[in-house]
Write a structure and sequence with these properties.
This protein has 508 residues and is α/β, with parallel strands linked by helices. The chain folds into 3 domains: 143 residues, HUPs (Rossmann fold); 84 residues, Serine Threonine Protein Phosphatase 5, Tetratricopeptide repeat (Alpha Horseshoe), CATH 1.25.40; 203 residues, DNA Cyclobutane Dipyrimidine Photolyase, subunit A, domain 3 (Orthogonal Bundle). Helices cover 48% and strands 6% of the residues. α13 packs antiparallel against α14, α14 packs across α19 and α17 crosses α19. The longest helix has 23 residues.
């Protein structure tokens, strides 16, 4: 078998390498081998390839992320490495900032080019990418970035986006077929860069989170398209039933264990012979809506910090530390809200309606600034995707000016979607003895009714921390009055011109 440095001199259709040349595929949120354009393009060249993932200390420490995310990434990389064993190689997993790492790498080898996906990330990753682009320019390195899941950089409006996205989804997938020895074993490089710290991918014990990796992702996809989608439309809003009837693919799409194209094409392939075509249509429509919101954030990433409709900056909200603490701990006295928060903290997943309800409750009922809950929820969501996260938070917080104002009633949602309190009792065991008639409003129980079941409000479970009717009216009056504001109206026209899709009512 050829050594690494032999490979550097021989790979490439008989071409002889100048110096010790490699090309680096910098993996970000595309943790898969199949339908991965940067990897496929690197393979096409015939040059040696280094597959690289960086645990950047600045990103690991960022308040958007928590241990659940990095464990998921490690599981994903470990899964990739299992496949790469057939190629006698692995992903090079390093703890280092990107510029500092490449500065060290260039002291050992010549980097012919760097390939990666475009990342629609938080401002920190965007600034990092700008710094890396400058570094590459100064060092004479070609950095090629490729479209990720049909989200396009540089767009000024949404004209033609729908058709372009569909064309992207219909295009053939990229295969993974490197030549023997083309992917460099990183251990050979690590020996030359002794001041670079490799990150062990030891299996993480415990936790109730979905496991990362393309293998796990394909299992979820297969069971969904085989049987679970049959109840998709009927159970999508139910907090308990949705845990099995929804696809549960969001973390695998967010971290790139699957491409949206892989999922979309399989769903479309199934549709002609499906007995529940409307369920599949609803699912594929949501795949496109996901891309729509990421594209929105790509075009206007200031949404991480300020309301997309600048007129709403006039609303002044103070952070109430007591309310925020009760919200984050799931002790608000509103059972469905508390159950959703506790479920989210332990599993990293709740369905869309419950997420929307949380944001609505925090920003309308508790009158908290949406910025005060954004990072907490990001840390909780295993499928945290900045491009979906921030536009959705703003939409549910009612600060876009163009979307319907929704103030969710937790009690009504509980009665509509968890009538017998199955989900609530699962996550709030202190309410196990509360009768169904009161499971979503235990505060309405009389003292005698409490005594009969050995339950005491204020001891076993808190009283509601706010009066729902009062806070709802406050929020409704304020938000509807803002619709008349001149600056809000002006911004509405700008937002519609920039972000509205053509033929939005015929989206799929």
């Amino acid at each position: 078998m050829l050594s690494f440095f032999d490979n550097l001199q021989s790979i490439g259709s008989g071409k002889r390498m100048q110096e010790k040349e490699v090309q680096v595929v910098w993996l970000k949120r595309n943790l898969r081998l199949e339908d991965n354009e940067p990897i496929a393009r690197a393979i096409e060249t015939g040059y040696p390839i280094v597959l690289l993932y960086l645990f950047e200390p600045s990103l690991v420490a960022d308040d958007h992320y928590s241990e659940r995310h990095w464990n998921f990434v490690k599981e994903s990389l470990r899964d990739m490495n299992e496949t790469l064993k057939a190629n006698a190689t692995s992903v090079w997993v390093v703890k280092e900032e990107v510029v500092a790492f490449f500065d060290k790498l260039l002291q050992t080898v010549k980097v012919k080019q760097v390939l990666s996906n475009m990342e629609t990330g938080i401002r920190k990753t965007y600034d990092r990418d700008k710094a890396f682009a400058t570094f590459c320019k100064n060092r004479g390195i070609v950095w090629r970035e490729y479209v990720n899941n049909g989200v396009f950089r540089g767009s000024k409006d949404r004209m033609g986006w729908r058709d372009t996205w569909t064309e992207y989804m219909m295009a053939p997938q990229f295969s993974f077929n490197p030549t023997h020895g083309q992917i460099v074993n990183p251990l050979n490089l690590q020996k030359k860069l002794k001041n670079v710290e490799m990150v062990p991918l030891d299996e993480v014990q415990g936790g109730s989170f979905q496991k990362g990796g393309a293998s796990e992702a394909k299992k979820y996809l297969n069971t969904f398209l085989k049987r679970r989608y049959l109840d998709y439309n009927q159970h999508i809003s139910k907090p308990e039933a949705s845990r099995t009837s929804c696809s549960r693919l969001s973390p695998y799409l967010a971290w790139g264990n699957l491409s949206t194209r892989q999922v979309w094409q399989l769903a479309k392939e199934l549709r002609p012979k499906s007995p529940k075509k409307r369920n599949l249509d609803g699912f594929t429509s949501r795949l496109r809506w996901q891309a729509h919101f990421i594209q929105k954030f790509e075009m206007e990433d200031r949404m991480e910090f300020e309301s997309v409709n600048r007129g709403y900056q006039k609303i002044h909200k103070e952070v109430n530390p007591t309310y925020l603490k009760h919200f984050e701990s799931g002790t608000t006295g509103f059972p469905l809200v508390d159950a959703v928060v506790r479920c989210l903290r332990q599993t990293g997943y709740v369905n869309f309606r419950m997420r929307a309800m949380l944001v609505s409750f925090a920003t309308h009922q508790l009158w908290l600034p949406w910025q005060s809950i954004a990072k907490f929820l990001a840390r909780c969501f295993l499928d945290f995707e900045p491009g979906i996260h921030y536009p959705q938070i703003q939409m549910q917080a009612g600060v876009t000016g163009i979307n319907q104002i929704r103030i969710y009633n937790p009690t009504k949602n509980g009665l509509d979607h968890d009538l017998e309190g199955v989900f609530v009792r699962k996550w709030l065991p202190e309410l196990h003895s509360v009768p169904n008639d009161f499971i979503h409003e235990p505060s309405k129980m009389s003292l005698m009714e409490q005594q009969l079941i050995g339950f005491e409000l204020g001891t076993n479970y808190p009283y509601p921390i706010i009066d729902f009717k009062t806070t709802r009216k406050r929020a409704s009056d304020m938000l509807w009055s803002m619709r008349k504001d001149a600056d809000v109206k002006k911004e509405n026209w700008r937002i519609l011109a920039t972000h509205t899709l053509e033929d939005r009512n015929n989206f799929d």
